[in-house]
Specification:
Radius of gyration: 20 Å
Helix content: 40-55%
Structural class: alpha/beta
Strand order of the largest sheet: 3-2-1-4-5
Order of helices and strands: EEEHEHEHEEEHHEEHHEHEHH
Bound molecules: adenosine monophosphate, magnesium ion
Shape: globular
Strand content: 15-25%
Largest sheet: 5 strands, mixed
Number of helices: 10
């Protein structure tokens, strides 16, 4: 009936993970995901897309089963429109459009980082945070200013997760290398010199990768290299985060993205926040990684603020930026 809460199905598939999340306005009903894991090397975009297309129907039907609803109970379909790998994006978009056409329900294409920030706000209670978004391909510091989320700072070359994964791969550790590097780093004791590269609120990580690979070649202990990568790269992130807080005048931090699962990074950010009198929020593990729930949540907010999209307007955009999207549901705290 008219009083029932809206049920939203969200599809995420920008990179390695295809995921379906189902929410309504007060509850998280289901989440099903499948991650593409290359047997060797890094992510091959076409293989990731093949993986997604092979499992997407199972992922969606399992999520519907868990939520105990039929596809016709859905009121809104959200999907990740970008940024990401074009072949993966196209599989996700095609599935979302098919469901929309099949059910006659509205569809909304969602910016992926917007999903991270909105699910983070929903599950942590952060109101108007500076977000540190650290994932495989992305490293951004984002804050809401004048009706939109703006990228205050970002990596000028590779994402921090890609840097760690590439180093790990050369050391014989399979993708994703982050968790294993974190374990090795805990046993490291010697801080090796690595290029610390911060320009304003922007960062760069390829210099660290090159130097770390050199250390690997010359026989430095992998524990010490891992430790030094983390200490150097995370200190850079804390520095730009501090500057972004100062510039934006916000008093909350929200961390999201796969690299935000790292305990050392979390501790460094939490310590800085405590000293600065800032509240810091860590998105829960299951919502930190790419997932369909975050896309559903952003789609819900967009829909409720009046956004409507025709199927023609749902073309994927591998370079989609968060500052292209209006976000009128936030009133700037500062
Ligand atoms: P995402 O792109 O947000 O799905 O996150 C995936 C990235 O997070 C990969 O680059 C992983 O290596 C990285 N990652 C996952 N867990 C950790 C961790 N504990 N420490 C560092 N990086 C991590
Ligand atoms: Mg992500």
């Amino acid at each position: 009936g008219a009083m029932d809460p809206m049920i939203v199905l969200g599809l995420e598939g920008t990179a390695h993970t295809i995921s379906c999340g189902i929410i309504d306005e007060s509850r998280i009903l289901a989440m099903e995901s499948s991650m593409y894991r290359p047997k060797t090397g890094g992510i091959r975009p076409l293989d990731a897309a093949v993986h997604h297309s092979e499992v997407i129907d199972t992922v969606i039907s399992r999520a519907l089963e868990k939520a105990k609803i039929s596809i016709h109970d859905i009121d809104l379909i959200g999907f990740s429109m970008g940024p990401g790998l074009a072949p993966s994006l196209r599989v996700t978009a095609t599935a979302a459009r098919t469901i929309s056409v099949l059910t006659g329900k509205p569809i909304i294409g969602v910016n992926h980082p917007l999903g991270h920030i909105e699910i983070g706000r929903r599950v942590t209670g952060a109101i108007d945070p500076v977000m540190l978004y650290v994932s495989g391909g992305n490293t951004q510091v984002i804050a809401h200013v004048n009706g939109r989320y703006r990228v205050l700072g970002e990596t000028l070359d590779i994402g921090i997760g890609n840097m760690i994964d590439k180093f790990a791969r050369e050391a014989g550790i399979p993708f994703p290398g982050g968790p294993e590097i974190e374990k090795l780093a805990m046993k490291g004791t010697k801080l090796l010199d690595l290029p610390y590269s911060v320009k304003g609120m922007d960062t760069a990580f390829s210099g660290i990768l090159t130097a770390a690979l050199q250390y690997l070649k010359t026989g430095q202990a992998i524990e010490d290299i891992s430790y030094s990568i983390q200490e150097t790269a995370f200190a850079m992130l804390v520095e730009v985060l501090e500057r972004a807080l100062y510039v934006s005048g916000k008093d909350e931090i929200l961390m999201a993205g796969g690299v935000a699962l790292n305990r050392r990074l979390r501790d460094m950010v939490t310590n800085m926040a405590r000293e600065a009198g800032i509240r810091s929020y860590l998105t829960d593990r299951e919502y930190c990684m790419d997932n369909g729930i975050m896309i559903a949540q952003a789609a819900l907010l967009m829909y409720k603020s009046g956004v409507r999209m025709s199927v023609e307007e749902t073309a994927v955009n591998p370079r989609f930026r968060i500052d292209e999207v209006d976000a009128p549901w936030i009133t700037d705290a500062s």
